[in-house]
């Protein structure tokens, strides 16, 4: 049975004006299990007007009252944790365990934002003249737009919506067209929490039509995006006419640098976990290994032993690694692998689409490529799939040169016991996040941002909250 999951506009559940829908596919089976409205200009306009109408009253509420609504949403998610976890498996493809962690992360993001209600601060500055005072207030933008990627359909909503709402903004959510059902179900929890109409709206559709209308509207004053570099550039260009504020968390191509003095066992385990978690669809996971030549054989042997334990399996039963989410991602993954092999890389394991029981859906085997070069397509491009190319390097300086030559700079990993080297890397490596002798992780009180083409602004922690507020300076005579 194919269920229609409607959009949420001005507190009501609506379909697209023309009745058109978008099918939602289970990436593990290729079956259509749901559909959502294919919204267009009319629905975008309704959502924008609803948000504009709601923003002033919402901004006037005390922050602790706004936080109470977030706590209610979190309570709803806790009660339906299993439902949301299973839904994430069905539409995104991650394992049930990974999906459960995503629901928990969503709750953590929103709880952290709610707890910040009593920590929103301004500044009081001395004036140059007697009988005067200077204040700097932090105030909301008003109507904000949250555009979410398909790899974490629920967590990205919590990551954006929590900070936006507690700081006094309202938000229109636009989930990725491949994973919109979770967002629709999330708004059911929003409705149950009793938020005023227009504070949260959700519309579903494609970027070229719906996304452009939302981004280019003069009502939209701040836009938070998680997505590809290509999408980020297009959104930035469209937002330029109204000079809307931007937070762009875009793609990256994280190098995993292993030097000769590293803990090879720990590094090999971390490289395997990070690369094949969520079928490689994590923006900060390691996209390639740059390993010092003298330990390359040892590292590769230990890595391959760990990768051998990563097998395709039914994600609903945690039987193994799940599929990639979209057919386009599957095609891209295979194309990059085949191109890299043609360029001289060697296949150590994997390198094929799923066969047999995994022929249907978007399955790709866990893949390791040996003797890749920095110019190999699987190294130069962000794969966003379960493929790990290994590049041998002469030393730390060569690895750093390769890493910094990339046009993006979201994250990087460095494994070394030499404090002089990792302190040097902190100063010189051109990424927003550096993992030093540490596997993939992200904490709600950290800061998630990219350098260079990996974006502007960022999410999480106090700096993420700051991004949802603008400053207002008051010069007062008394």
The number of strands is 25
Domain module count: 2
Query: Tell me, what's the shape?
Result: globular
List the uncertain runs.
none
Helix content: 25-40%
CATH architecture of the largest domain: 3-Layer(aba) Sandwich
CATH superfamily of the largest domain: Aldehyde Dehydrogenase, Chain A, domain 1
Give the structural class. Answer: alpha/beta
**What portion of residues belong to β-strands?**
15-25%
Please report the number of helical segments: 15
Mean pLDDT, all residues: 97
Give the termini separation: 69 Å
Write down the Rg.
23 Å
CATH class of the largest domain: Alpha Beta
The CATH topology of the largest domain corresponds to Aldehyde Dehydrogenase, Chain A, domain 1
Trace the largest sheet across and list its strands: 15-16-17-14-13-19-20
The main sheet comes to:
7 strands, mixed
């Amino acid at each position: 049975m194919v269920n229609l999951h409607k959009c949420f506009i001005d507190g009501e559940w609506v379909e697209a004006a023309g009745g058109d829908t978008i099918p939602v596919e289970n990436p593990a089976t290729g079956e259509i299990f749901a559909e959502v409205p294919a919204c267009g200009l009319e629905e975008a306009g309704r959502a924008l007007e609803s948000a504009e109408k709601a923003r002033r009253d919402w901004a006037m509420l005390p922050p602790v009252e706004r936080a109470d609504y977030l706590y209610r949403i979190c309570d709803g998610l806790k009660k339906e944790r299993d439902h949301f976890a299973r839904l994430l498996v069905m539409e995104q493809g991650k394992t049930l365990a990974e999906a459960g962690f995503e629901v928990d992360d969503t709750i953590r993001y929103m709880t952290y934002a709610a707890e910040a209600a009593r920590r929103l601060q301004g500044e009081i500055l001395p004036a140059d003249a007697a009988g005067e005072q200077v204040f700097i207030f932090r105030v909301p933008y008003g109507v904000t737009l949250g555009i979410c990627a398909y790899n974490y359909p629920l967590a990205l909503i919590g990551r954006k919506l929590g900070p936006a709402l507690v700081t006094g903004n309202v938000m229109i959510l636009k989930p990725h067209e491949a994973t919109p059902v979770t967002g629709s179900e999330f708004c059911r929890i929003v409705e149950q929490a009793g938020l005023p109409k227009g504070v949260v709206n959700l519309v579903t559709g494609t970027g070229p039509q719906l996304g452009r209308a939302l981004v280019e509207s003069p009502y939209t004053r701040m836009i938070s995006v998680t997505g590809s570099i290509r999408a980020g550039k297009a959104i930035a260009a469209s937002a330029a006419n109204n000079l809307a504020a931007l937070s762009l968390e875009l793609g990256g191509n994280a190098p995993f640098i292993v030097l000769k003095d590293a803990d090879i066992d720990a590094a090999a385990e971390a490289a395997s976990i990070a690369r094949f978690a969520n079928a490689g669809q994590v923006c900060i996971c390691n996209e390639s290994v740059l390993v010092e030549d003298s330990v390359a054989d040892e590292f590769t042997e230990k890595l391959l032993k760990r990768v051998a334990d990563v097998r395709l399996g039914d994600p609903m039963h945690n039987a193994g690694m799940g599929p990639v989410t979209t057919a386009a991602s599957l095609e891209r993954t295979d194309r990059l692998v085949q191109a890299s092999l043609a360029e001289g890389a060697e296949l150590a394991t994997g390198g094929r689409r799923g066969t047999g029981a995994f022929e249907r859906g978007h399955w790709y085997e866990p893949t390791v490529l040996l003797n890749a070069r920095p110019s190999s397509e699987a190294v130069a491009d962000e794969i966003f799939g379960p493929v790990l190319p290994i590049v041998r390097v002469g030393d730390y300086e060569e690895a750093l040169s390769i890493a910094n030559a990339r046009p993006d700079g979201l994250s990087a990993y460095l494994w070394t016991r030499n404090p002089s080297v990792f302190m040097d890397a902190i100063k010189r490596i051109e990424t927003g996040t550096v993992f030093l002798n540490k596997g993939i992780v992200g904490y709600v009180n950290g800061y998630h941002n990219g350098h260079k083409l990996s974006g502007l602004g960022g999410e999480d922690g106090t700096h993420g909250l700051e991004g949802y507020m603008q400053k207002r300076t008051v010069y007062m005579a008394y």
